[in-house]
Amino acid sequence: MTRFGLVANRLHRQEGVGALERWAQTCEAGIRTLDLGLLAVGGTHDALVRSGLLAGHAPLVRLPYGADGGVMRLVSRISGGLAPEDEIDGVIYFVDPVDPSSLYPEAQALKRQCVIHGKPFLSTAAGAREWITIELALAGLALDNPLTPPAQQTVALIAHDALKQRMVAYAGLHFDLLSSFEARVATGTTGGLLNELAWSRGWPAGVPWVTRYQSGPLGGDAQIAELVLERRCHKVIFFEDPHVARQHEADIQLLERAVCSATEETTCFNSPAMAERWAQAMGVAGSAR
Questions:
Q1: Exactly one of 35, 86, 96, 221 is catalytic; which is it?
Q2: Is 241 marked active-site?
């Protein structure tokens, strides 16, 4: 059984306005079809119970409140847990970017361990909805909600130094899919490498395949964050290297928090494993049409 951790900051637990309730309502049928296990931190679990959503869903398990170590336990279980049966496969964390608890060490560690282990970390309502559809598509099951056609979206392609060639390889493997987006944007060096790749693949000479912004340390992350805030960038594929000290950590967090501010419109994939799974699902969904 696939099992995910589930956390929602206070805003997203509020009845009628929070992303948690909207996600559970939209995706309930898919969650039940997948028999998806959900290890929900205390307040998040309680909010689901109050809403009446996922009632009787046996794989919904309550963990302690965050203040009592609930999020810390998810960090351990993303990393393998104390026994093989403890391990979980990813995390849905509805982040309110102005909630200080989203910057607590356990919240940061949870996201970092997901990236290290190549497991999904889904921090927006749009991303959490899309991931249920991805899992349904890859399981060959009927889709409750169609995957958004790339032609209606702009995608950002960002990679830290150690993963730039991995991004180039990913773009080469899925060149047609990424070319089908309405537009592509990237930070400096990554954008240059991707344009060179595109020209080598027959993209019109001199016509940029991606619009290049500044490098990350010089403000490129902030420029793309503004696009996200203006709802002009809808998907961020960000190959993060969690093993190096990053001098522009504040800029990276700014971009991530902008994504969470656009929770209903923007998705973010933080690792090659996440991006590859999405691309595979897009291929399955496309062949089924």
A1: 221
A2: no
